[in-house]
Design brief:
Blueprint: E1 7-12, H1 21-29, E2 34-39, H2 54-59, E3 64-67, H3 81-89, E4 93-96, H4 106-115, E5 119-121, E6 140-146, H5 153-166, E7 170-174, H6 178-184, H7 198-205, E8 213-217, H8 229-239, E9 243-248, H9 265-276, E10 284-290, H10 297-311, E11 315-316, H11 318-321, H12 324-333
Helix pairs in contact: 1-6, 3-4, 7-8
InterPro entries: DgcN-like, DgcN-like_C, DgcN-like_N, P-loop_NTPase
Pfam family, one: DUF1611
Protein name: NAD-dependent epimerase/dehydratase family protein
């Protein structure tokens, strides 16, 4: 799909920042595409870009209104429909990463048709996938895994893509969620793939490649999350990961949306190796990525130093402090397979 830029970011009336993580991800990694935001009364998220009316957004050149939210079940709230219809009537296309299909809402479908506008359901793909085979394929792959959902798995691999490329690696971010697809322009929202084909879809996203090429796969959910572990496991098997980074948010005590306690980082490492070895017996951790935005710098650095000592792995906040230590570990653990290769 070809989504026209620039964007008006629609946040609705989401209750917190995490509920608008799609919008934040696009704004953080593609700020030049985000002209303004449209929020309803009660919205608790703020991208820090101008609040615009639909008329103002069109006047400033916006082409598409992006529904930049991620909620449980990926539903489109009933009271948002009138705003989506108004955006179509104002001349904007609509793009959504929700599970709910825009065209399945009669009022939205009718408004798109009468205005000649496009509806983009980023979470859904026209591709068909085979079941995963788990057959060894060339190329190298890194997967971000988490103690919970929404802990920074996407930001970690995007930061690694930048850091590894700066060090001479042939490395590409591979999107497995709706926000990543918005950012990269390609990929598959794995949580919208029929369960039998999840691992096969991941094999399609990160196919056989040159021996020293790295595909950096965005993780989803957590192997310990009762809602999303099935997606996480299919992603792990399909990735056939050589390396993984554990992502963590240190202020939580229970996983998002449920009452289950957070697993420890060591539990995540152990289970990822145990389950990931089905398709890659040599899978290994290369770092810990911690979202420290709610910690003062001194406390953040102390926590990272403690985690590094405890797990004998580089620990960092990829956004706040960079990924140099993790890239150093990758260099040490995975020498070039091709003589004369960079990195």
């Amino acid at each position: 799909m070809q989504i026209e830029t620039p964007y008006l970011m629609f946040l609705g009336d989401v209750p917190d920042r995490l509920a608008a993580k799609t919008a934040y991800g696009i704004k953080d990694w593609r700020p030049e595409w985000c002209v303004g935001q449209l929020r309803l009364p009660g919205c608790a998220a703020d991208l820090g870009i101008p609040d615009l009316t639909l008329a103002e957004a069109v006047q400033k050149g916006c082409r598409t209104m992006v529904i930049g939210v991620a909620n449980a079940g990926g539903v489109l709230p009933e009271h948002w429909i009138a705003q989506v219809v108004a955006a179509l009537d104002a001349g904007l296309d609509i793009a959504s990463g929700l599970h709910a299909r825009l065209g399945a809402v009669p009022a939205i479908a009718e408004a798109a048709e009468r205005n000649g506008r496009q509806l983009h359901d980023v979470r859904h793909t026209a591709e068909t996938f085979a079941t995963g085979k788990g057959t060894k394929r060339p190329g190298r792959r890194l997967l971000s895994v988490g103690t919970d959902c929404s802990v920074g798995k996407k930001y970690t691999v995007l930061a690694l893509e930048k850091g590894m490329r700066e060090r001479g690696f042939d490395a590409d971010f591979r999107a497995t969620g709706q926000t990543g697809v918005f950012i990269s322009g390609r990929g598959v929202a794995i949580d919208a793939v029929v369960a039998d084909f999840i691992s096969g879809a991941v094999e399609w996203i990160a196919p056989a490649a040159a021996p020293d090429h790295w595909d950096l796969l965005e993780g989803q959910g957590s192997l310990f999350h009762p809602s999303f572990a099935g997606v996480s496991l299919g992603l792990l098997h399909g990735a056939q990961a050589d390396a993984f980074v554990v992502c963590h948010e240190p202020t939580r005590t229970t996983m998002r949306g449920v009452q289950h306690p957070l697993p420890t980082i060591q539990q995540v490492i152990d289970l990822t190796i145990q389950l990931g070895s089905l398709t890659n017996p040599d899978i290994r951790p290369v770092g810990i990525a911690v979202n420290t935005q709610d910690l003062e710098e001194g406390a953040a650095r102390a926590l990272l130093a403690d985690l590094a000592r405890t797990h004998d792995l580089p620990a960092t906040d990829p956004v706040r402090f960079g990924v140099e230590g993790i890239v150093d570990r990758i260099v040490a653990e995975f020498p070039p397979a091709v003589t004369g290769a960079s990195a």
